[in-house]
Amino acid sequence: MLKQFGGKITPELKKRYAQSPNWKSGSFQNLEETTMDIGLAEMPGMLWKMFFSKGNTIPQQNLPIQAFDKTTFLAPDDSLKYIWYGHGVYLLRLAGKTILIDPMLGPDAAPIAPTKSARFSENTLQLIDDFPQIDLLLLTHDHYDHLDYASFKKLLPKVKKYYVALGCGRHLEAWGAASQTITEFDWWDSHTFEDIKITFTPSRHFSGRGIRDRAKSLWGGWVLKTAQTALFHTGDGGYGAHFKEIGERLGPFDLGFVECGQYNERWRAIHMLPDEAVQAACDAQIKRATPYHWGGFKLAFHSWTAPAEDFTAAAQLKHLEYTLPKLGQLMHLDQPAQVDPWWKDIT
Questions:
Q1: Tens digit of each residue's pLDDT (9 = 90 or more) over 319-339
Q2: Do residues 192 and 169 make contact, with C-beta atoms less than 8 angstroms apart?
Q3: Residue 53 — very low, low, confident or very high, per pLDDT cuts 50/70/90?
Q4: Most CB contacts within 10 A, which of 4, 156, 227, 237?
Q5: CB-based contact 238:32 (threshold 8 Å)
Q6: Taking every annotated instance into account, which residue ranges of this chain make up the domain Metallo-beta-lactamase (predicted)?
């Protein structure tokens, strides 16, 4: 079996997953009905368009990534610091700890597919060489555009601890992580890591790395809270009532990483449209939002800049504060938001 597929499902694991209230009829389930409006007869044409049509769906040049300044990143600071590396990758410095979220830094979002879904930036695996020790790695779900074998193996010597969605631990163990370093979370589970309270929250999505493991691990978002700072990462997924519940139970949030990219009207149930992403931020009581799930790969038909442009327009209508960092740019929560349309210099 290809290493990329990850860990196998066993009867013992299924018994453990069945203890979750979110496991029903042999798989994990969303909180509300979630289906995509795509017929089987349409799939070949859609896949052809996905992989072979271009237009403005990909940048005309590789997206640059700012160099990592380890000294500045690690310098003592009361404020949250974070760096976005395109798509879903975030490197955080919070309460004196270094946290990495969904570290897919490989060159291809579809490594087992017959055609590539190439990254918009070059040599991203080499970024790991400059990363400091990772105190905690967070994983929202096991899709290939968020969990990458090559990235994981390169990170393995640097990572001390893993907090992951329930069911994802089997992949990490299959790839060499020690079981005692892995903690799996069901929805609403909370653990305290040093001075940071971390909660896994529901999202409206799915999971799987092969034909036989669809929805055999959970998916969701993360809330990180210290005495000074509250951060909400929505995880991938469609709009739903869970955002308001998250805001009521755990909000408000100083900063939100909000999924916005690779969407389409046909699959809005599992990937929010831009106006829905902004509404989700408002529902969750996010004070400053930044859209992610763009700037990395072409996994839909919209222009590569549409997520940023349409999120901006929707946020302005709702009077939601937002920020749009460049790839690799070191951001400080206590500094003014970055709202310059930097992508216009590239297209």
A1: 999 999 999 999 999 999 989
A2: no
A3: low
A4: 237
A5: no
A6: 98-294
Span 120-146, pLDDT tens digits: 999 999 999 999 999 999 999 999 999
Tokens 């460049």 -> residue: 326
Q: Which amino acid is at 7?
A: G
Neighbours of 176 (CB within 10 A): 10
The domains located in the chain, with CATH, are 56-335 (3.60.15.10)
Buried b (16+ CB within 10 A) or exposed e, 143-162: bbbbbbbbbbebbeebbebb
Nearest-angstrom CA–CA distance, 118 and 44: 20
Residues facing residue 162 across a β-bridge: 137, 182
Alpha helix (H) residue ranges in 113-219: 127-130, 149-155, 169-174
Residue bearing the bigger pLDDT, 56 or 178: 178
Nearest one of 256, 179, 245 to 223, comparing CA atoms: 256
Cα(84)–Cα(320) distance, integer angstroms = 20
Residue in this structure with the two tokens 């149930």, named with its chain if needed: 269
Distance, in Å, from the CA atom of 274 to the CA atom of 239, rounded to the nearest integer, reads: 10
CB atoms within 10 A of CB 52: 8
Euclidean distance between CA atoms 126 and 221, whole angstroms: 27
pLDDT at 112: 82
Q: What is the mean pLDDT of the chain?
A: 94
**Token code pair at residue 253:** 């949030």
Q: What is the pLDDT of residues 235-286, one digit of tens each?
A: 999 999 999 999 999 999 999 999 999 999 999 999 999 999 999 999 999 9
> Can you spell out the DSSP letters for 249-309?
HH--BSEEEEE-SS--GGGTTTS--HHHHHHHHHHTTBSEEEEES-SS---SSS-TTHHHH
Q: Please state the length of the chain.
A: 347
Q: What DSSP character marks residue 134?
A: B
Rounded Cα distance, 320 and 334, in Å? 17
